[in-house]
């Protein structure tokens, strides 16, 4: 396992070994790949990530169900 600095140096060296045309092709190839970043809704509540359980009140549960139903209708 290498450090972040070692990995960055290795990637830079590999990139500099490419010809100018290969560099452009690599750049275009990277642009064409989808990069979907998670949204706040994808992540959920911060305690979900930690594995903690959450006690919700009934009013909060209704709010969450309404929010989910609204996003599904879009």
Give a structural overview.
With about 70 residues, this protein is mostly helical. The protein has 2 domains: about 35 residues, no CATH class; about 35 residues, no CATH class. Helices cover about 70% and strands about 0% of the residues. It contains 5 helices and no strands. The longest helix has 16 residues. It starts with a helix and ends with a helix.
Short précis:
The protein contains five helices and no strands. It is mostly helical.
List the helices and strands and how they pair.
Elements: H1 4-17, H2 20-32, H3 40-43, H4 46-50, H5 58-73
Q: Which descriptors apply to this entry?
A:
70% helix, mainly alpha, 2 domains, elongated, single chain, 74 residues
Which class of secondary structure composition applies to the elements? mainly alpha
What is the percent of helical residues? over 70%
Mean of pLDDT: 77
Largest β-sheet summary: none
Strand content: under 5%
Domain module count: 2
Flag low-confidence runs: none
Number of strands: 0
Q: Kindly, what is the distance between the CA atoms of the first and last residues, rounded to a whole number of angstroms?
A: 44 Å
Cα Rg: 22 Å
Apparent shape: elongated
User: How many H/I helical runs?
Assistant: 5
């Amino acid at each position: 396992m290498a450090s972040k600095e070692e990995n960055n140096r290795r990637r830079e060296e590999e990139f500099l070994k490419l010809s100018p045309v290969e560099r452009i092709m690599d750049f275009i190839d990277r642009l064409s790949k989808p990069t979907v970043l998670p949204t706040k809704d994808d992540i959920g509540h911060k305690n979900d990530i930690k594995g903690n359980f959450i006690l919700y009140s009934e009013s909060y549960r209704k709010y969450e169900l309404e929010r989910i139903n609204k996003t599904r209708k879009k």
